């Protein structure tokens, strides 16, 4: 039989999480209108970069069928979505990289972020079959991509000139928040955006998962305007916050990593477990060996105490995670033996965020690190 490890991707959980975000935005818009503010609910770019955060591009596109658009990095993934039948907008979050890419944007009707002068130069030398839509990105303080505030309005004016020449169609404005998930919040970067680009025309895109969930009011569109949010990790059922779990928002995990017990050991006081002997028993202890290790995408730095579920019972990882195996404490599950089911994270186990926090990282990394050798099954 195959090695007993697999991942299940729930397309219905992806669709559920998108609906949760949509309701959250609709409620924010309704509350604002109740206060007398004229606004409308923003549109949603469902972010499916990094192979759908490890869930698979095709599965993510199916799960997010009701999104207003998809956002990603890779041109090949964008083409895959178009050729699979996605007809709504697709946004390239890092834009294009060389002049030859523009032909692909043109052929497949892709919207691009523009964040450098060189990209504007490339656009100026291209004549598309129909105008290309873009979002001109402002570096409001994250200092990754985008035009500096003092250069932004000139860049935007140049994009508007290309629009008048028929090279560009819609020209939007966007930025990215560095601390929407942290106490610092978005106020300082939002002030830079409003001061620099707030009075310019065109659609706006500001909010990632954290800002969409915590500050939905900043994404609301004027009645005569267009606004987009860009949720990512929350759509997969993980939390962008360290202090608030995904379930608090009604989100469901879309990825479930499962395996089985393949061996049982009986330790005596003083016996150690695994490489480096990082865990030593202080009493008689029954342990299980699970067919999952860091070569499968489970974090090697998840040490003793990391939550795991065996036969429906919550227990803990013991010692150091190996390439192909890890050990668990079977004290809470005395009847569990070889073949007992193990949930490492997901719908019937700990959340991926719990595992990540125990390992000193974030859920994003674990989801994206799923190894190619792990069989994947999609369910409705």
TrEMBL record:
Pathway noted in the entry: Amino-acid biosynthesis; D-alanine biosynthesis; D-alanine from L-alanine: step 1/1
Enzyme Commission number: 5.1.1.1
Gene3D superfamilies listed in its UniProt record: Alanine racemase, Lyase, Ornithine Decarboxylase, Chain A, domain 1
Membrane-crossing residue ranges in chain numbering: none
Gene Ontology molecular functions: alanine racemase activity; pyridoxal phosphate binding
Active site (UniProt): 49 (proton acceptor), 275 (proton acceptor)
InterPro entries, per database record: Ala_racemase (IPR000821), Ala_racemase/Decarboxylase_C (IPR009006), Ala_racemase_C (IPR011079), Ala_racemase_N (IPR001608), PLP-binding_barrel (IPR029066)
Single GO cellular component term: cytosol
Residues found modified as N6-(pyridoxal phosphate)lysine: 49
Residues binding substrate: 144, 323
NCBIfam families (alphabetical): alr
Function: Catalyzes the interconversion of L-alanine and D-alanine. May also act on other amino acids.
PANTHER family referenced in this protein's UniProt entry, alphabetically: ALANINE RACEMASE, ALANINE RACEMASE, CATABOLIC-RELATED
Protein name: Alanine racemase
Lineage: Bacteria, Pseudomonadati, Pseudomonadota, Betaproteobacteria, Burkholderiales
């Amino acid at each position: 039989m195959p090695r007993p490890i697999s991942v299940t991707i729930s397309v219905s959980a992806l669709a559920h999480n998108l609906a949760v975000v949509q309701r959250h935005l609709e409620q924010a818009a309704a509350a604002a209108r109740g206060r007398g503010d004229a606004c409308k609910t923003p549109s949603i770019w469902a972010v499916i970069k990094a192979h759908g955060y490890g869930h698979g591009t095709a599965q993510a596109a199916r799960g997010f069928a009701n999104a207003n658009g998809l956002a990603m990095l890779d041109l090949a993934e964008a083409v895959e979505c178009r050729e699979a039948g996605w007809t709504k907008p697709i946004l390239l979050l890092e834009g294009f990289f060389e002049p030859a890419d523009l032909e692909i944007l043109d052929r497949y009707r892709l919207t691009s972020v523009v964040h450098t002068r060189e990209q504007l130069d490339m656009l100026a030398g291209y004549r598309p079959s129909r105008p290309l839509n873009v979002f001109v990105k402002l570096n409001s303080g994250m200092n990754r991509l985008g035009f500096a505030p003092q250069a932004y309005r000139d860049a935007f004016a140049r994009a508007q000139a290309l629009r008048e020449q028929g090279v560009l169609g819609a020209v939007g404005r966007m930025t990215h928040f560095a601390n929407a998930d942290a106490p610092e919040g978005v106020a300082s970067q939002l002030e830079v955006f409003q001061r620099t680009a707030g009075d310019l025309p065109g659609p706006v895109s500001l909010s990632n998962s954290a800002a969409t969930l915590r500050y939905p009011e900043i994404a609301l569109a004027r009645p005569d305007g267009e606004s987009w949010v860009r949720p990512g990790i929350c759509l997969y059922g993980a939390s962008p916050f360290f202090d608030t779990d995904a379930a608090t928002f009604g989100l469901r995990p879309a990825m479930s990593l499962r395996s089985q017990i393949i061996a049982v050991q009986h330790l005596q006081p003083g016996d150690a477990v695994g490489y480096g002997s990082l865990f030593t028993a202080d009493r008689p202890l029954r342990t299980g060996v699970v067919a999952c290790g860091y070569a499968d995408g489970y974090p090697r730095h998840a040490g003793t105490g990391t939550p795991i579920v065996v036969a429906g019972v919550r227990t803990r990882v013991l010692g150091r995670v190996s390439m192909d195996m890890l050990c668990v404490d079977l004290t809470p599950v005395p009847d569990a033996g070889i073949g007992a089911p193990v949930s490492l994270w997901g719908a019937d186990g700990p959340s991926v965020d719990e595992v990540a926090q125990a390992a000193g990282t974030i859920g994003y990394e674990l989801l994206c690190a799923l190894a190619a050798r792990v069989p994947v099954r999609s369910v409705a």
